[in-house]
Amino acid sequence: MSIFETLESEVRSYSRGWPVVFDRAQGSWLYAEDGKAYLDFFAGAGALNYGHNNPALKQALLDYISRDGVTHALDMFTVAKRDFLETLDEVILKPRSLDYKVIFPGPGGANAVEAALKLARKVTGKESVINFTNAFHGMTLGALSVTGNSMKRGGAGIPLVHATPMPYDQYFDGAMPDFLYFERLLEDSGSGLNDPAAVIVESVQGEGGINAARLEWLRGLSELCQRHGILLILDDVQMGCGRTGPFFSFEDAGIKPDIVCLSKSIGGYGLPMALTLIRPDLDVWEPGEHNGTFRGISPAFVTATEALRTYWRDDELEKSVRAKGERVGAALTEIAESHSGVTAKGRGLARGLEFGSGELAGRVCAAAFERGLLMETSGPDGEVAKLLPPLTTSDNEFDQGLQIIRESVEAVLAG
């Protein structure tokens, strides 16, 4: 590993917790170059919902490459982009009565968020955006301005402005009625709150600590935005594409955000891809006003299209994720109840165990790695051991992984 330590920047992080050189991957497994297998309950931070090297997606990609399909196309028209847009409309948008236009903002989730913030300000003529405590929306300057984590914000090196945090669901442990503080500030001309262009929110905060907003809270937020003429941006970068069960994490709440950000698993295969979905009346861009070199990565269009066709023409995957999520949640609750100071959290297959400190959660993840399981920490102090397994993980693999977690928690807390 000397070349990594010698040449690669100190900013690297995941490799510090998993100090092996990986060589192959299949399904829910990663294999080190020495052949040791690791069960992956991280799934590329949610970019591999359909597993590593999914056979159906791989074949579609190989077929496309072998016929010399266009790889890079900026925002030109291509067969691959047409197939993707037609499939997205047919399989995802129309069945859900969602009327969105599609922006291809660049290759990553931060690109989707930056486009959303930029467009909201252009449409409304207002600068301020409301975000929430413990939010995470990306590492570029605009996305960092609406992110809560102080360490990540500190890396910006300049003041992060034009954003105001509000308490996320249960931030005050039920001591204050939902949105009392927010709405009071909006309606009070003496509050000093700048009139916001938009509110940006995650229905489940992944990096923030697997904080799952109640469905009634999401509905209340949507209604508040409608009452006050504020655009609602739903960041579904990590929790979309089935992570909580339905394709969009907000579906169970019955809301229709004005703008939706997607990335990570929208490409299906782990290839870079991002979308910003917007109400048609918000499409006020001038040609070229928001652009970028890597908006038309055709191999990602191909695997994204195949993923939608394979997994979203019916509700089988959604039902499976809900059932597996309940099973994993019950197992984590059992573990938590067996140990003082541990709490099970999450929704669908975004789950976590919250410990009393980041030191404990880190030790649990390290113990799991020693036993052949990859999981990471999240939360403002890294106090949550986070599970984001591929949605295609089998029942037997969940049995293996949950047993490793039990053993890891026991080893750390009994030590």
Architecture overview:
This protein has helices at 2-7, 14-17, 43-46, 55-66, 79-93, 109-124, 141-145, 150-154, 180-187, 215-228, 298-311, 316-337, 358-370, 395-413; strands at 22-26, 29-32, 37-40, 101-103, 129-132, 163-166, 198-201, 204-205, 211-212, 231-235, 259-262, 275-278, 343-347, 350-354, 373-374, 376-378, 384-387. The protein is of the alpha/beta class and 415 residues long. The protein folds into two domains: 2-53 and 315-413, Aspartate Aminotransferase, domain 1 (Alpha-Beta Complex); 59-311, Type I PLP-dependent aspartate aminotransferase-like (Major domain) (Aspartate Aminotransferase, domain 2). The strands form four sheets. A seven-stranded mixed beta sheet has the order 4-12-11-10-7-5-6. It has a four-stranded mixed beta sheet with strand order 1-2-3-15. Strands 13-14-17-16 form a four-stranded antiparallel beta sheet. The protein is globular. Keywords: Aminotransferase, Antibiotic biosynthesis, Pyridoxal phosphate, Transferase. It is an enzyme of class 2 (transferase). Pathway: Amine and polyamine biosynthesis; ectoine biosynthesis; L-ectoine from L-aspartate 4-semialdehyde: step 1/3.
Task: Please provide a brief summary of the model.
Keywords: Aminotransferase, Antibiotic biosynthesis, Pyridoxal phosphate, Transferase. Pathway: Amine and polyamine biosynthesis; ectoine biosynthesis; L-ectoine from L-aspartate 4-semialdehyde: step 1/3. The protein is of the alpha/beta class and 415 residues long.
